Amino acid sequence: METETHQQEQENPNKVKKMLRQIKPRQMIYPIIIGLGVAAWLLYSQLNGQDIPYEHLQLTKYAAFWLSLAFLFMIFRDIGYMIRLRILAENKITWRQTFRVIMLWEFTSAVTPSVVGGTSLAILFIHKENISVGKSSAIVMATAFLDELYFALMFPLLLIFVSSTELFSGGDNGVGTINLDNEFFYFAVIGYSLKLVYMLFIAYGLFINPQFIKKIILLIFKLPLLRRKKQAAQKAGNEIISSSKELKGKPFKFWLKAFLATFLSWTARYWVVNVMFLAFFIFKKSHILLFARQLVMWIMMLVSPTPGGSGFSEFVFSEYLGDFLPPVAGIAVIMAVVWRLFTYYPYLFVGAVVVPKWIKSKFSD
């Protein structure tokens, strides 16, 4: 399999170059423009001639402590991903290689629409770190399965502690029934449904019947509009079968460790907003409710058509989490930008440094 892929790269360099064009560092400018542009428009429309509320955002020693903790949570998030990748690769890649793959993966996710993400290139990233294509495919599909499993389990679990009316109420007081006119409710339902279906699809393909999944993929790509991608669909089907062979025999302990690493990553990422709010405001509402709202918010972001959810993320944050903040014009938008500075923009800049070096080292010949 390894030799076959190497031959494909040599015989069809244009296909590889086409893939690499998706991760050019200059692409980072587009999500930055979109995200800051939407934030600026929201801020302008909310302030309506008023001054920016700087007095609510003073960088005291207290604030510096909580912001440092927010940064630490993002480090935990990446450490969790690195641990998981090492577990799935059975320690066949070093910590340095693991960090490089994660940064490449995150950069790709940051410059492509949320519905696409960095998964399409992740197999290439891992394979180029001396992991076979079959094993790389298995690792990528396993990470997708574990990520979706986290969302599938955590969302109904949090509903035990947080009522649906608190997540999607018609008023600011969180009382009453779910407001079906609330666009965020539909975004969340669609996003969660897509995640659940995707998780079940991967689980069935990996652990039960990979041949069936391959047949379904090939059947879909017989449609006139998709027919030209039939070869790619054939390859995807073969990768599912290879992945299934790699993962079926893994013991429960293997999956438990991988899921715990996944749990660490996503949970640490969500706590960033909680401690970020503590840095500037006296927080009187439920931290569990804020955590649950973030889970729903990330599910909503799945349907964003913009690179890395730029623009859409800032809008959803300011609208959906704004009632946790003081009723001051523009404060929610500013906090949305601060949140993206912690959770999104660093991957753009780190990726812009890592990507050129990686391409040069892996494709210099």
| Broad shape | globular
- End-to-end Cα distance: 21 Å
Q: Report the biggest beta sheet as strand number plus sense, adding barrel if it closes.
A: none
Radius of gyration: 22 Å
- Unreliable spans are 1-12, 170-178
Number of helices: 16
Describe the protein's architecture and organization.
This protein is mainly alpha-helical. The chain has one domain. It has 16 helices and no strands. Helix 9 packs across helix 13 and helix 10 packs antiparallel against helix 11. The chain is globular. 38% of the residues are buried. The N terminus is likely disordered.
Summarize the structure.
The chain is built from 16 helices and no strands. The protein is an all-alpha fold and about 375 residues long.
